């Protein structure tokens, strides 16, 4: 007899949500309690799907927000914030992945929400959640439209026993030689140091320095730096500080004396770290501070007992071949229609593709 589930659209962070983190088949830092609280504080999240077994165990959590991108058409959006997002998959226990996912979508189909379309960004296009969605499409329960698909660069600890071996396999001997020379040139004034900030106050100060460095580069010239967008800065900073309070958010900086040469914002879920945002001193581009930063990050992660993988968070505009991390994770932005034969899903797909084209056009002009 199939197991029965209870699915509700929650707005109060469940007290047992933290226990789902290490049991999940797919990591999603946006589905952790501190992120959910930050969503609410920013006025972004309309709630999240909660799926429980008949015994009351939480086996699924899927944060979403209601949006109206095409005129008059309401959709659910996962994750709730369509910018600066890393993962849109539900956090589902590996032991109940397929049935919990099915129960959540069937509850939506049965009227749990008036929305009949779900836009999911940064969905892993492999594994239990993807297989579950594909199976439901084959059964005619949903339709699944892929807007974009790409390979995201990944650092997997299983690829090499030590960081030195990993970097030796990822970079040619010539590249390593050139990077050693560049590092020596950078260290003529002072040694390079990797600073890791994990406490809330230090994370907040590191985030301020991150925004200053980012605004000094091409994003500042294009008007898209966080420092120039108060709402975006408030949201990203709020999530980062909330996650730091739960030891799930941190800032890394590549420093030379008092100068910050590169900076990165990170979120953690389970045994995975997510590289949320990065920036570097563009006046030193010829010395490759960003690549040196990535190499030092790799060394540090290998020293952490919890670490298994680093998800680079890159979207389809980033060529993974340009990064030092050589494993790949298949990703996709998708639209799920709960009425497979209806027009609403097709309308959302057309609207999303138009927005994608317009965004790409703006970015090309901004980089000129």
Question: What can be said about this structure in brief?
Answer:
Helices cover about 35% and strands about 25% of the residues. The chain has helices spanning about 35-40, 95-110, 130-140, 165-170, 175-185, 200-215, 220, 230-245, 290-300, 345-365, and strands spanning about 5-10, 45-55, 60-65, 75-80, 90, 115-125, 145-155, 190-195, 250-255, 260-270, 270-280, 310, 325-335.
Describe the model.
The chain is 36% helix and 27% strand. It has 368 residues and is of the alpha+beta class. Strands 1, 2, 3, 4, 5, 6, 7, 8, 9, 10, 11, 12 and 13 form a 13-stranded mixed sheet that branches.
Task: Pick out its properties.
13-stranded mixed β-sheet; 27% strand; 36% helix; globular; 368 residues; alpha+beta
């Amino acid at each position: 007899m199939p197991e029965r589930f209870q699915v509700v659209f929650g707005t109060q962070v469940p007290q047992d949500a933290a226990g789902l983190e290490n049991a999940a088949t797919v990591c999603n830092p946006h589905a952790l309690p501190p992120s959910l609280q930050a969503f609410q504080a920013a006025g972004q999240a309309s709630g999240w799907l909660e799926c429980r077994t008949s015994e009351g165990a939480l086996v699924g959590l899927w944060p979403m927000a209601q949006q109206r991108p095409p005129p008059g058409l309401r959709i659910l959006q996962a994750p709730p914030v369509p910018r600066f997002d890393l993962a849109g998959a539900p956090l589902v226990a590996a032991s109940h992945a397929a049935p919990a996912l099915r129960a959540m979508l069937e509850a939506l189909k049965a009227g749990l929400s008036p929305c009949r379309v779900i836009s999911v960004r940064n969905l892993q296009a492999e594994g239990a959640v993807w297989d579950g969605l594909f199976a439901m499409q084959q059964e005619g329960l949903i339709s699944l439209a892929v807007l974009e698909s790409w390979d995201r660069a990944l650092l997997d600890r299983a690829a090499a026993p030590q960081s030195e071996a990993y970097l030796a396999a990822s970079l040619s001997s010539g590249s390593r030689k050139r990077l050693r020379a560049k590092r020596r040139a950078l260290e003529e004034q002072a040694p390079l140091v990797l600073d890791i900030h994990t406490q809330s106050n230090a994370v907040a100060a590191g985030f301020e320095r991150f925004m200053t460095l980012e605004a000094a580069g091409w994003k500042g010239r294009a008007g898209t730096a966080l420092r120039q967008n108060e709402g975006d800065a408030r949201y990203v900073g709020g999530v980062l500080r909330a996650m730091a309070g739960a030891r799930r958010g941190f800032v890394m900086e590549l420093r030379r004396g008092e100068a910050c040469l590169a900076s990165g914002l990170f979120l953690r879920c389970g045994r995975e770290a997510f590289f949320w945002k990065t920036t570097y001193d563009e006046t030193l581009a010829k010395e490759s501070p960003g690549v040196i930063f990535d190499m030092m990050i790799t060394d540090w992660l290998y020293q952490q007992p919890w670490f298994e993988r680093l998800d680079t968070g890159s979207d389809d505009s980033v060529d993974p071949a340009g990064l030092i991390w050589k494993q790949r994770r298949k990703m996709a932005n998708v639209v799920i229609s709960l009425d497979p034969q209806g027009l609403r899903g097709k309308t959302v797909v057309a609207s999303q593709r138009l927005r994608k084209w317009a965004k790409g056009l703006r970015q090309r002009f901004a980089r000129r």
